[in-house]
Specification:
four-stranded antiparallel β-sheet; Rieske Iron-sulfur Protein; binds FE2/S2 (inorganic) cluster; alpha+beta
Length: 218
């Protein structure tokens, strides 16, 4: 690979003519540097905002009783999860817990991300139904295999129902049966998170039931 560089010549007759051009060039360079610095500052400020949000006291603490739930992705990221966001039969909503007193969103740990889904209560097994609120149930969004996020809601490879699926190594979990593993290498079910429903408002009713996170590094 060869590089070509502009040649620099100097002569009395061209020096004067070159000065305005050089001045323009320096000016353009200064302007470019200024714009780059401003862009960089804006970028730092934006990533600083995210970092600041995740650094707030309580942001990495596990979900607590009374926490609210806010969407963790999509157009409504940061908004409270409402019943209107949860059609019966899915898909699930991805959410973070939010401390109602401090308004801190507990997004400082990826282990706090939650899947919330609404299913027909008649489709739930007894234990899952006993935890459900109007068919609404919640689980950790972190795969128990190697800790990838569980992102898909798709038809199972081993049945005709939709299931949670981790796309890293295709583990599948059935939310109707306490998120037990129905396919793939995951060694255990997703941790469940008890919910409360008061006058249409969802909140967290207790700590995770079961271990959160993967058994091995991804
Ligand atoms: S990390 Fe989810 S299947 Fe491997």
């Amino acid at each position: 690979m060869s590089h070509s560089y502009p040649s620099i010549t100097s002569s009395p007759s061209t020096d004067n003519a070159a000065e305005p051009e050089a001045a323009h060039c320096q000016c353009t360079t200064r302007r470019s540097l200024l714009l780059a610095a401003l862009a960089s500052t804006a970028c730092l400020a934006s990533s600083g905002d995210v970092a600041a949000a995740e650094d707030q006291p309580g942001a990495d603490e596990r979900p607590k009783k009374g926490d609210l739930l806010v969407q963790s992705e999509g157009d409504r990221e940061g908004s409270l999860v409402t019943l209107a966001d949860l059609p019966v039969g899915g898909p699930p909503v991805h959410a973070w817990p939010k401390d109602p007193k401090t308004s801190v969103v507990r997004s400082g740990s990826r282990l706090n991300e939650i899947l919330i889904i609404r299913l027909d209560p008649a489709d739930l097994d007894e234990q899952t139904r006993s935890r459900a609120q109007d068919g609404i149930i919640a689980y950790s969004a972190i795969c128990s295999h190697a800790g990838c996020p569980v992102t898909a809601w798709v038809k199972s490879d081993v049945g005709d129902k939709d299931v949670f699926k981790c796309m890293c190594h295709n583990s599948e979990y059935d939310p109707r049966k306490g998120a037990q593993v129905v396919f793939g290498p995951a060694p255990r079910r997703l941790a469940a998170l008890p919910l409360a429903l008061n006058e249409g408002a969802l909140s967290i009713a207790g700590s995770f039931i079961g271990k959160v996170g993967g058994q091995q590094p991804g």
